[in-house]
Design goal:
disordered C terminus; binds magnesium ion; Rossmann fold; disordered N terminus; globular; six-stranded parallel sheet; two-stranded antiparallel sheet; 38% helix; 242 residues; alpha/beta
Length: 242
């Protein structure tokens, strides 16, 4: 045996969840899929209500209630995901608030290694996100995520959220893919429903979008937490899973 060879009993072969010979293109959500949703949840649940309360001169609890009520009203629309809309609604600088805690931005378990594997396997990888372009820029600045994929599409580029069939029509027009040989991964089930209606055959849901919250077990789609569980690999147990 060579000095640097790995003993066979130290090799762990993971059984992949997918038939990768049937997949040519991979579409990936960003927040809660590639990036830990812990950052966005902290910003939207804590920092935005605090900034809104200060700007409107109201109590933080009142600001939270008002925001949650209005979020329910416009949930799933393009406005729901727009920094411009919420900046105007709250009277605050939404991009500035998002820049307060950049140290919280990080990849989810195994996400960066998965993107490297996709590149090595020569499969096009496209981020398809409802995040506003300013949000994409902030995530990229602290992770370099846009450099890890072939393209980044924000639903704001098209004016339709991923929940809308028009998003998928426009995505295919701008980035042609065969839906029968495409994988889409997201942490949002209504978005996965829309992708299914658009004909995308391989769909996976993320069971633990926010590392600070409990894992979800009641999902309608096949689900996983760490990306190392969805692609073939052969590595030693000591290897880093990030
Ligand atoms: Mg998401």
């Amino acid at each position: 045996m060579q000095a640097n060879a790995t003993p066979l009993n130290n090799i762990r072969s993971a059984e992949p969840m997918l038939d990768w010979t049937a997949i040519d293109t991979v579409l990936l959500d960003m927040d809660g899929t590639l990036i830990d949703l812990n950052y966005d949840n902290h910003v939207w649940n804590d920092l935005v209500p605090a900034a809104f309360a200060s700007a409107a001169d109201i109590q933080v609890t009142e600001a939270k209630q008002q925001l949650q009520h209005h979020m329910r009203e416009i949930h799933g629309t393009i406005r729901f995901y727009s920094f411009d809309y919420w900046s105007s609604y709250c009277g605050i600088d939404m991009t500035g608030v998002h820049n307060l805690v950049p140290h919280m931005i990080d990849y989810r378990c195994g996400a960066r290694a998965f993107l490297n594997w996709l590149r090595d396997s020569r499969r096009p990888a496209i981020i398809a996100t409802n995040a506003h372009r300013d949000s994409v820029d902030i995530k990229h600045r602290h992770t370099g995520i846009c450099n890890e994929v072939d393209a980044v599409v924000s639903s704001h580029d098209y004016g339709y959220p991923k929940e809308d069939p028009e998003f998928w029509r426009q995505l295919q027009r701008h980035h042609p893919y065969d839906p029968a040989r495409t994988l889409f991964v997201d942490d949002n089930e209504p978005v996965l429903d829309a992708a299914a209606r658009a004909g995308i055959r391989h769909l996976l849901c993320v069971s633990l979008p926010d590392s600070d919250r409990p894992e979800r077990h009641d999902l309608s789609y096949p689900s996983f937490n760490c990306f190392t569980d969805i692609y073939p690999q052969c590595h030693t147990p000591q290897q880093n899973r990030t």
